[in-house]
Amino acid sequence: MLLRADNLKKVFRSGNSDLVLFESLSLDVQQGEMLAIVGESGTGKSTLLHILGALDRASAGDVYFAQVRLGSLSEEDAAEFRSRELGFVWQFHYLLPEFTASENVAMPLLMRGMRHREAEQESLHWLQEVGLQDRASHRSGELSGGEQQRVALARALITRPKVLMADEPTGDLDNRTAETVFKLIARLHRDYRLTSLIVTHNLGFARQCDRVLRLERGRVVEVSPQSLSA
Q1: Is position 2 within any domain?
Q2: Number of structural domains in the chain
Q3: Residue 25, Cα to own-chain centre: how many angstroms?
Q4: DSSP-assigned beta bridge partners for residue 150
């Protein structure tokens, strides 16, 4: 087991009262699996992913990555953990507009202190993996929405993380482009033996994952991928 959550609770202060987003929530993620997290808007899917990815802290409960208890990490240690173990893709690409696609992809390695030439070589490798080697010198504004998201995927994977965490990675794309991006995520998941957690409202995509967890009424329920509509 690579990732485990035990009895998570998340509470937000809302005016003079507390809003309990979820509680007594437990789950596990096996190494190498592609896990979809689905549920209605507002059920806490993104918040759960943030907690599992050490971007946020639960109000109660623990998250373990292998033998590391994420809640015990300092902010600095959590940032180092994320940089070493995880890759993130969001609904919006968050590319830096003043830099080229190659420079955006290389940024995580440059921030680690890697030499520019070596980071550029790795960047070109990952742009080739996502089919954009011929767009390496283009800035984000010169790329289509699907191309921007593929650059963001390459940026997430250039550090060779163990886990890919994707929050609605196709949510801002048209249906055809979304399908292309999801197939690319699935291929890279297989080729690089990733463990992938994907928050998605697209049940057709969730159906193609190894396991599906549905978040509803503050609880998580495992459902059969085959039971979901395409």
Answers
A1: no
A2: 1
A3: 20
A4: none
